[in-house]
Amino acid sequence: MRSIRFALLALVAAVSLKAAPAQAGFMLEPYLGYKMGKFDNNGVKGDLSGVSVGARAGYAFPVIFIAADYSVLASGEVDWDNSALGKSDVTNNQLLLDVGVSLPLIRAYAGYGLSNEFKFDGGSKLKGGTLWKLGVGTTILPFVAINLEYQNAEHDKADGVEVDGVKSNAFMLSASVPLEW
Q1: How far, in Å, CA of 72 to CA of 62, rounded?
Q2: pLDDT tens, residue by residue, 115-126
Q3: Nearest-CA neighbor of 168 among 102, 105, 88?
Q4: What is the dihedral of CA 25, 130, 125, 83, to 10 degrees?
Q5: Do residues 99 and 61 make contact, with C-beta atoms less than 8 angstroms apart?
Q6: What is the dihedral sign for C-alpha 107, 113, 156, 78?
Q7: Cβ proximity of 114 and 98 under 8 Å
Q8: The pTM is what?
């Protein structure tokens, strides 16, 4: 029984090493996703949702990758819990630095925000603060990765004025095409 386990482990290791050759190079990964979560503006809460388009560009080592990640929430909206406020159209531009681990069938990554801007249809802008994300993905489909990530943001400026208590958190399900050369 012990030798069967060892043989199975050796087979999995051999397939894993064959599936992920040791090479380093540039990477580009465009993605399309759907984001949904919560938005909180000092107790005024709403549901955030919309389509997000973006790309990661960086360098992939044999197992680890480092990339700049830029995304735009193209057709987003916040559906406020207060019915008098209704819905607000919103766009969101984010720039993060991602660091991840890429194994043959699964990968995980974390990102830290370098820039984060929300713009509401009324012209109000949120900038600054902190932004981070955690993601996990799978590459079981040929040429396509399916990713799930959690994003958390806190904003400290609204229309150039210091604010506190403005935050959002969201999940995004995305499909991407990881390219390396």
Answers
A1: 29
A2: 999 999 888 899
A3: 88
A4: 110
A5: no
A6: negative
A7: no
A8: 0.84
CA 81 to chain CA centroid, Å, is: 25
Closest CA to 70 of 98, 42, 102, 106: 98
Closest CA to 53 of 78, 39, 34: 34
Contact present, 44 and 63 (Cβ < 8 Å):
no
**Strand 161-176 relative to strand 125-127, pairing:** unpaired
Map residue 8 onto helix, strand or coil: helix
Burial class (CB in 10 A: 0-12, 13-18, 19+), 140: exposed
Encoded tokens for 69 = 């990640």
* Segment 20-55, tens digit of pLDDT: 445 689 999 999 999 999 999 888 999 999 999 999
Give ∠ CA 115-118-119 in degrees, rounded to 5.
Answer: 130
Q: Work out the number of other CB atoms within 10 angstroms of the CB of residue 110.
A: 15
Sequence-separated (6 or more) residues with CB below 8 Å from residue 168: 37, 38, 39, 40, 48, 118, 151, 152, 153, 155
